[in-house]
Structure formats: C-alpha cells, structure tokens
Amino acid sequence: MKLIPDPEKISVVIEKIRQLKKRIGFVPTMGALHSGHFSLINRARKENDIVVVSIFVNPTQFSKGEDFKEYPRRFKKDIGFCRRLGVDFVFLPDRNNMYPEGYSTFINVDNLSDCLCGVSRPGHFRGVATVVAKLLNIVHPDTLYLGQKDAQQAIIISRMVKDLNFPVKVKVLPTVRQGDGLALSSRNAYLNKQERSVALVLSKALRLAETLISNGQRNCGRIISRMKQLIERNKQAKIDYIAIVDPEQLKELKKIAPGCLIALAVKIGKVRLIDNTVIGCA
C-alpha cells in the first residue's frame, strides 16, 4: 500500500494504471474510519483491480460554528485499517494542495442542496460537491462508492456526476448499523454513554414509520407526527427535521410512494445525527 499526499503525483500513478486497463474503485472519506467505511472498501476490493481511499477533512463542507477543528482525526489508525483491508493507494492531501491560495471555484447542485440538511447547514453541500468533483478529477476512478447513511449527499453527488458527465459509475451501499440499530457515524464518538442510548431514537423512529406503512398507513403527515411523538419523549433529543421525500428531487410527499426516502436529523445533546430509510412498498 502506498501513501500519496500530492494530487499531481497520484494522478500520474493512476494514469499509468489506467493504461494497463485495470479497473479502479474509489472510496472518499474524511477519516475516522469505521465498519461503514470498511463495507465500501471491501466492495471496492471485490469489484476492482485497484482500490484508492482518500482521507481528507474537507473544510469547505463545514459551516461556521460547526465541528471542523474537533472532527476526529485518527490518520495513523485509519492507515492501518486501509492496509489490513487491502487498499492499494491512500490519498492524503492537505488543505493547501486541495485549496491553494486564490482558490475560487465551487460547484453547487441547485435545489437538492437547499433542503433537508441543507437548511441548517448552508453551504455544506456546495463544499461536498466541490471536493468530490476535485477528487474524481484527481483519481479518475471507474466506480465511486458511497454510503446510504448520507442519502442526500449520495443523491447530490449522483446528480453532479450525471450533469457534468463524469465518466464514473456511482454505487450507493446500504447503511451499516450496530447491533442495536444505531447507524455508524464518525460523530458517534462525541456521544457519552447516556447520549448513545438516547441516539437509538433515530432508528426507532424509522422502524416505527416502516411498521405504520406495512400496516397500510400512506399519509406522510400522520407518519411524521407519530415519529415526532416518539422522539420528543426524550428531552435530550431535539428534532432538526423529519421528511418524507421522493428519491430524485427530494420534494416532500403527501402520500407514500414506492422508493420514497424517509430522512431525519436529530440533535442529541450537542451532537447532530442523521439517518434514513428507503420505502419499497407499492
């Protein structure tokens, strides 16, 4: 496994690999790797000749007052995980070579970036789209691997890839959860023991919605109301949003439709967590 911090150097290395007609799988991360990331890396390893993982805590996707400085950085441990998982290249850029002095170009995916998490995190998805576009231009993978846990992010990146004609296939893999249902997230590390217990309310609310739908409920407003009631029983849990939307335009629905996305964001103490589920019913 090779560690490469320089964008130009890894582009040269990748181009030589592409000339050999080898398939390249790419997993972009901000580090603090966990089993959710491992599932993406393992799939990339299975389906490609070469696997590239990037580790970069991207400053442009953090809004003012968010946890950029506190975001967990465990680079040495992450590199060890990558080595054990059979990653071929770890791309480790720093802020200066991703956003050099005078940098002024950003990508915004209109409409999709302004709803759900985009309301309380203005500019977040502009930063996400920009850094992923840069990474795709640097790494030139055949397949990009993303997680369903960050559903809005995956939808935005998929739209950007399509709109800007990036020659890459996007694969979105299922959310990885702990045994009690909590979706894996790097921010789970911020939770104390009591908050960790309260955080289960996100997955419980989603399971409640799935049960209501399987029992015939199709009114989105009523489903959201029941989810709110469940969450608000916990004084430490503060709802940012609960929404039921179509999976392409992220427009709110009045009635359940096949493939719709139920997404929520909840603050547990000072920690903002997200989760979602896709409904496959007719």
Question: How would you concisely characterize the structure shown here?
Answer:
The chain is of the alpha/beta class and 282 residues long. The chain is built from 10 helices and 9 strands. It has helices spanning 7-19, 35-47, 75-84, 95-98, 117-120, 124-139, 151-163, 193-198, 200-214, 220-231, and strands spanning 2-4, 24-29, 50-55, 89-91, 143-147, 169-173, 237-245, 261-268, 271-278.
Structural domain tally: 2
Going across the major beta sheet, what is the strand order?
A: 1-4-3-2-5-6
From the alpha carbons, calculate the radius of gyration and give it in angstroms. Answer: 19 Å
Structural class: alpha/beta
Unreliably modeled segments: none
Determine the strand fraction and express it as a percent band: 15-25%
CATH architecture field of the largest domain: 3-Layer(aba) Sandwich
Number of strands: 9
**Amino-to-carboxy terminus distance:** 46 Å
Let me know the CATH homologous superfamily of the largest domain.
HUPs
Labels describing this entry:
10 helices, 282 residues, 2 domains, alpha/beta, Pantoate--beta-alanine Ligase, Chain: A,domain 2, 9 strands, single chain, 6-stranded parallel beta sheet
